[in-house]
């Protein structure tokens, strides 16, 4: 089986889990469960839950304890997109070729669907306490990581600075802050939660965090490079959008060549650190390489 | 000390706890911590955290384990007000005589401040795991209640139906659903979390839920009555607003007299159930009476 086929299987298995944890479409509040499903099941690479399970298995995790957290991380990623697309934010009517949630359900329901997904992420993750009551302590640790990395010291913090600085030319320091928090934090929390729930040591958890941090940064820089070097057909979305929006990116600060070298450096360091963890995993190696050297 | 003085002291102690758990105003994302503080420290009755601690102590709870959850429930209540006030929702420029969060910080930051408060509520509640690692299992149970009652089967669910039905005449069934979820659910979760963290039995937790459910409903009906019978000076906000907005309320469905009898019935049942719990608590008795017979 090729890497692509293997990845596709893992995406399908992730989507089955998402479906399983989605709330039933019933009751007077049915419209909100429809809006949640509309946004959550809109496709996407499902990178975070796939990475989470890979790291869970890398550290010897077995069984279904990881599943509510896989669903939770994707719900959090999705709510952030739903709120990002709102008229007061990026004001996007389309995402991945489909109308955005607020366009279909109204702006009020767009706000509430985002709130509902964020809240339901924690509700879903908390079902792990019922699943394995004896593991309450590690589940609590995983929840702390989930909350921290999604909040003002994680994703929301990065989003706040991105919104605040939009339209200004920004320093390399601030750009680094935005990339680390807005993109990096959820990827870090994915692999850390996988490690924690598998019973990894503090040292292993922190190594996993470091790998994810490098992958997240390389992933984001590659995004900047593709916006300059790819074509709209290849990317499935308009290229040169950063230039049009006068956005400061890694490429505008350092140029395409230097950016490419940075992606290579970060990726090879991440792969080296993965090797040092001492668990063989061919798929995970290929996954990290694909994530950063992807062409869309 | 009069009831009013005693309540005021408990409010002050609650606000100290809120301040303690607020994130520091620092870092590139400082603006969001300012917006969180602006909305969270805007005053209010602090009913939910005060009730939470009363029920904690009623069931013998001691020490500070309750504090992160007191902060969390008020953060959740506050985020719901911040998002409620947004232009796409109720579009309110003022709340309690102050400009609303999105008016001061911009609509984008209003959305993000609400998200941040909801997320930070869970982040704050999760600090309880560090405080008392040996109690991970009851802390997990408390988190489950917090998430469930704030979500689509609780507060958000009620808000969704309220928004969806706004401008329509609605049935007594739907009105009951909205009141139980939008107002009742967070009050229920407050007393349940107090009971859970104090180590109460399942039966006691469920009795606490029943008391809170009745108090929440009586509280909301009293709101409807005051809108008809009070004055703007007394209430500190415009009266007859429900009539102006053609809103279906308990009073428009049943009339003022029948509504008053319902408040009395619910309150005396709640007080009776509180007595049956077998723990004397004069303050809590007075609190429940004040909550429903208040004049503003």
Overview of this protein structure:
The structure is a homodimer of 296-residue chains. Chain A is built from 15 helices and two strands. The first copy, chain A, is mostly helical and 296 residues long. Chain A has a two-stranded antiparallel sheet with strand order 1-2. In chain A, a hairpin with a 2-residue loop joins strand 1 and strand 2. In chain A, helix 3 packs across helix 9, helix 6 runs antiparallel to helix 7 and helix 10 runs antiparallel to helix 14.
Any chance you could write out the topology, listing elements then pairs?
Two copies of one chain form a homodimer.
Chain A: H1 3-21, H2 30-40, H3 47-58, H4 67-84, E1 94-95, E2 98-99, H5 101-105, H6 107-131, H7 136-150, H8 155-165, H9 172-197, H10 202-229, H11 232-235, H12 241-244, H13 250-254, H14 256-276, H15 282-293
Helix pairs in contact in A: 1-4, 2-6, 3-4, 3-9, 4-6, 4-9, 6-7, 7-9, 8-9, 9-10, 10-14, 10-15, 14-15
Q: From N to C, what is the helix and strand string of chain A?
A: HHHHEEHHHHHHHHHHH
Total strands of chain A: the figure is: 2
* Helix percentage of chain A: over 70%
Characterize the largest beta sheet of chain A: strand count, sense, and whether it forms a barrel. Answer: 2 strands, antiparallel
Largest interface (CB within 8 Å) is between: A-B, 57 and 57 residues
Task: Give me the side-by-side strand order of the main sheet of chain A.
Answer: 1-2
Mean pLDDT of chain A: 94
Name the shape of chain A in a single word: globular
> Rounded to an integer, what's the Rg of chain A over CA atoms?
19 Å
| Oligomeric state as shown | homodimer
Low-confidence stretches of chain A: none
| Continuous helix count of chain A | 15
Distance between termini of chain A? Answer: 22 Å
Strand content of chain A: under 5%
Class inferred from helices and paired strands of chain A: mainly alpha
